[in-house]
Amino acid sequence: RFNRKNIIGRPVVYFVKDVFTRLVTGLYVGLEGPSWMGMAMALYNSFSDKVAFCHQYGLEISEEEWPCHHVPFCIRGDRGELESRHADRLAEELGIRITNTPPYRGDLKPIIERHFRILNDTAVTRLPGNVKPDMSQRGGHDYRFDAILDLDQFTRIIIHNTLTFNKLTIQ
Fold first, then answer.
1. Phi, psi of 53 (to 5 degrees)
2. Whose CA, among 34, 43, 67, 105, lies 20 to 30 Å from 80?
3. What digits encode the pLDDT tens for the residues 74-99?
4. How far apart are CA 135 and CA 68, in angstroms?
5. Integer CA distances (angstroms), 72 to 20, 124, 129, in order
6. How far apart are CA 146 and CA 151, in angstroms?
7. What is 78-128 written as a DSSP string?
């Protein structure tokens, strides 16, 4: 944001979804690689007031537009971040049951996998700096120089996409 010539890299996006309503209940966009902290931030967002969260990014919404701010009964993850002492402590302190899918079994969590596909199809592939298959070849055009968004702008796009998705899901 302060020096637009610096390349910050690709953001990592976490989503928390409710399996019954299919609503996105929380999200986090950050620059650190997949980590416990990134997932914890998404969970915190899931438990928090979304009106205040959106206000931080200059978006004014009503409670009805994103009615999610509760601690879940159970969290299902894909190993990694949820197989740690931090996850055990979270489960113990908040009374949340944590389950993990076996490795390489994306088919056991289709709700979240499909959501990432929807996000890519509706938003990410249209953004400048998106990696296109022909650009990843050696000596090809460096897509990173096409990126023009800072982290807050990208997060705002993810929030807009989430609000649209949730609105369609609620109807």
1. -60, -50
2. 67
3. 998 887 888 888 888 988 999 999 98
4. 39
5. 12, 28, 36
6. 15
7. -SGGGSSHHHHHHHHHHT-EEEEPPTT-GGG-HHHHHHHHHHHHHTGGGST
